[in-house]
């Protein structure tokens, strides 16, 4: 018995001594933005943390990397600039306790092409310049200019162009960057953000007089948070707020923004941006808590990283303050929250993706193929691969394969190009057959009705068919003669089953259009389509129109009965049936270049239907023209009220259901 107990005890100790399962997973996820579908999708790691350096940092607030990959870190807490090599080893520290080279709470650094180190010496209100070996060279104080007389000189960030002109950002300044030439002279403001004019401000300008406007708080532009410069000399400013609108501005020498104030995703809390040698941008955003990669046009590609103010975890930021990228595409992030500098290295997958994207952007599609193939081997769900390979096959003339890949990536522009080539080839080989087919169809459409009429004369249908057939003929007759058609319908009682058949035909046409409209004009994944939701959104407006129109017009002394409103509203749908068939056919044979034809037909169809509903209201309720306009507008308002109440009731019902469901689960748990 004792041996058995000892054996069991040893077994338990052995089991407990076995280390728990370990994961090599990073603390954050990497996602890719599919621009064609507007969705974020998780993918494998794009960048991985390789080290976190803390060589006596206290509060690192800015980071710069020179052409030789030396890393310059401004430490506000220790009044120093640390210089690291590309492995993160400390080379030297620029620090002086006193004297002209002494810094006070510096917040920005920039290394010029001649090796000079410019430091935004914030506490001393100057720009200090050092030689490459850290020896103090000179300082720039506030320029002597009447335009700066009332403004404090508190530099926080700066860059220097090839001419030695400094672009300096001032603390909490909304006037833009200050330009200072190498002689220390003021050259003017540069790149100020535009003031946001809200709708209320516009109303105030219309209503208030000059005296009242003076008492209003002025709408000032956003202050610039940081400034960067790329190899071509473009100045990049970053500004947080406004949900990423104009978060990054790419300014030429004249101060014109190449991005034209566009909105950047994950950039509401942006603090800095770095630009690599290929013109791709990397921002660090404190609200999102990570790094975002953008292409040259400002379209977001990837995001990764994570922020936790209490973190002690490798690769997680505490309070990121600046970002830089070296010539090997390693990303460096200054983190004042953890007093460290993080270094991230691009993975093999990331290198292949970025290399393929660069070649794709440069139009070198054939050269990009091996990179896309390697990306495809690692991740066949990455839709960018299909878009890239689709363009490659398009260049190679393999249009059928290009068509499949473009469809897989939901790239309608590329799909249209491949489709156009395939259609041209088909027409060149089947033009005669197509011509014969068109003639045959024209002959059938011409003589088929005559043949049917002759047959009906010889063998007429029973009398019981006359009325239903007349009602169906009146359905399309009303489309071209709405006043006469609706008057005839008002005098006659259309059988309910005829109305039901017509409504079923309209709904069936909607279902057919949903599934068989050409991909170019309906680029969706049909397997994920929610047909019931689509039909609900299609039918609900018609139903609410019928209810609202009857209620409103009844109150306004309209003569129409509820049955007549249903009949008229059904006949008003005739243009939808008549136009949907040619639109459906054209959507499968036209490319995007000819899309104006489909858009024109769709617009005519909508206008025609609206006119039909208007005439129906006028005739059924016996209104005058102006009276019909008023009541139609009131009907639209009533529809919006019905929908509002519908949403409220739905929301309350959902909460009530959730309450009872949770109550049931709790009761079930303690039974």
Automatic annotation (TrEMBL):
Domain Yip1: 477-645
Pfam families: NHL (PF01436), Yip1 (PF04893)
Transmembrane segment boundaries: 431-449, 494-515, 535-552, 573-590, 596-620, 632-652
TPR repeat extents: 383-416
Protein location: Membrane
GO molecular function: zinc ion binding
InterPro entries referenced in this protein's UniProt entry, alphabetically: 6-blade_b-propeller_TolB-like, NHL_repeat, TPR-like_helical_dom_sf, TPR_rpt, TRIM-NHL_E3_ligases, Yip1_dom
UniProt membrane topology term: Multi-pass membrane protein
Region forming the signal peptide: 1-24
GO cellular component terms, A-Z: membrane
Organism: Paenibacillus rhizovicinus
The protein, known as: Yip1 domain-containing protein
Alphabetically ordered keywords of this record: Membrane, Repeat, Signal, TPR repeat, Transmembrane, Transmembrane helix
Chain positions of NHL repeats: 99-133, 311-347
Lineage: Bacteria, Bacillati, Bacillota, Bacilli, Bacillales
